[in-house]
Amino acid sequence: MADVEYEARDVNVRFMAKVGLGFALLAASGAAVSLGVYRLIAKLHQGQDRPLAPLAQPPGRQPPLPRLQFTPQRDLERQRAQQMRELMSYGWVNRQAGTARLHIEDAMRLYVERAAARPPAAPAPPPAATRPRSQP
After folding, report:
1. Model-level pTM greater than 0.70?
2. Mapping DSSP to helix (H, G, I), strand (E, B) and coil, where does residue 24 land?
3. Residues 86-123: pLDDT tens digits?
4. Which residues pair with 91 in a beta bridge?
5. Which of 24, 50, 114, 127 shows its CA 20 to 30 Å from the CA of 6?
6. Is pLDDT above 60 for 131?
7. Nearest by Cα to 80 from 68, 88, 69
8. DSSP state, residue 99
9. Reduced to 3 DSSP states, what percent helix, strand and coil does the chain have, rounded to the nearest 5?
10. pLDDT tens, 41-66?
């Protein structure tokens, strides 16, 4: 068998190597120019003191109220527990006004008793658009 070699008329290896080297030099020179421009811009802006962005906070300063919750699940559980304590207990809401808080079961029972003792309300008159007009 004969040695297998490439065909010279299909691919010019020297030309392809020169093209690859040209692309590498182009990429390196582009990176060098970009670095030079970056350093030039940094040097031009070095002496300028710009104010902080409105949302930037100096270290240690707290954001304005209301702040985000760190433990929302625990906060929700505490709020629900407080509401359940208020629903299941008796106490004054406003003693001077005479407003008191009842146990929820007693409050519902009292509401039903008072609603049953109340006479039924008269039916509301129909809206003005559906009333028959009187003839002049």
Report:
1. no
2. helix
3. 989 998 889 999 898 889 899 999 999 998 888 887 78
4. 101
5. 24
6. no
7. 88
8. E
9. 50, 5, 45
10. 988 887 777 777 767 767 777 777 88
Contact between 12 and 20 under an 8 Å Cβ cutoff? The reply is no
**Is the distance from CB of 86 to CB of 101 less than 8 angstroms?**
yes
What does the buried/exposed string (b/e) look like for 13-23 if buried means 16 or more CB atoms within 10 Å of the residue's CB?
Answer: eeeeeeeeeee
Q: Quote the CA–CA distance of 102 and 93 in Å, as a whole number.
A: 10
Which among 79, 62, 83, 63 has a CA at the least distance from the CA of 71? 79
Average pLDDT value for residue range 62-85: 87
- The answer to whether residues 35 and 27 touch, using CB atoms and an 8 Å cutoff, is no
Whether pLDDT at 27 is above 70: yes
